[in-house]
Amino acid sequence: MSGAATATGPLAGLRILDLTAVVMGPYATQTLGDLGADVIKVEPPGGDNLRAVGPMRHPGMGAMALHLNRNKRSIVLDLKQPEGRAACLRLAAGCDALIYNTRPQAMARLGLAYEDVAAVNPRIVYLGAFGYGEEGPYAGQPAYDDLIQGASGVASLFAQQSGGAPRYAPVTLADRAVGLQAAIALLAAVLHARQTGQGQAVEIPMFEALTQFVMGDHLGGASFDPPLGGTGYARLLAEHRRPYATADGHLSVLIYNDKHWRAFFELIGRPELRDSPKFGSHTARAAHIAECYAFVAEVMATR
């Protein structure tokens, strides 16, 4: 394959062999392709499964697949056949990085483990983005976005906030959040390889990565030893933290700092609340955040 001579952007000159499918891996490489990287997308003869998800104007050209695979070159290889594997390794020899999102055991069965790829290109970054860390108790288990949202606690956060049943975020939150982490890690490893001449294998496990994403907000008092309280960020878990119902629809409002609250109290004709023990300072509001959101919800419903 000839080089992407017309590539522009800050990542022009970076070549990535993309063996990923569905959302997480393709989103990582789509992000890098948008920034100018030369991404070579490898698909099996049947194509990426996401191609079948509509809407679509032409068979195999579903909307999500088009979004996730823009700015990429495409090739079909049957990696289960010796010829396909050999062609993949020839491509890898000329790439800065290879990224996959199947389980490592599956790559090994194809004869495309890190040792196989590094034998043809010692400088390559070999990045795997998959369900669970290889040194953790769930190593090798299959994973999808919904399952990782559940395992990492995202689904239970909805239940804590509303008092209802757990539910998944209506976006592919795990795939896309971890996909961005994979893109960042790939760039860091490529920079290291260019500085040292040595490639490496990199692991981006969905469960561990998204759990860190969740705990950054919600570990709370358990961040300390001994703990200074329970887990959970009260502002994010407040029942009324959502678009407010008004007399003629819903409105997204965030009243955050002291200046915002003073202006709000003036607008609603309650200036005396500026000095109240619950609303008078950022610290006070944080300690009574559920009541703050409930108060705003009550006011908004009358306007």
Report on the structure:
The protein is an alpha/beta fold and 303 residues long. The protein folds into two domains: 15-214, 3-Layer(aba) Sandwich (Rossmann fold); 238-300, no CATH class. Helix content is 42%, strand content 12%. It has 13 helices and eight strands. A six-stranded parallel sheet has the order 3-2-1-4-5-6, with helices on both faces. Helix 1 (24-34) links the parallel strand 1 (15-18) and strand 2. Helix 6 (145-152) crosses helix 9 (206-218) and helix 8 packs across helix 9. It is elongated. It starts with 14 loop residues before the first strand and ends with a helix. 28% of the residues are buried.
Summarize this, please?
The chain is α/β, with parallel strands linked by helices and 303 residues long. Helix content is 42%, strand content 12%. The model has no long low-confidence stretch (mean pLDDT 95).
Strand order of the largest sheet: 3-2-1-4-5-6
Number of helices: 13
* Biggest pleated sheet: 6 strands, parallel
- Residue stretches low in confidence (pLDDT < 50, at least 5 long) are none
Topology order in helix (H) and strand (E) letters: EHEHEHEHHEHHHEHHEEHHH
Overall geometric form: elongated
Task: Describe the oligomeric state of these chains in a short phrase.
Answer: single chain
Q: Structural class, from secondary structure content? A: alpha/beta
Strand content: 5-15%
First CA to last CA: what distance? 63 Å
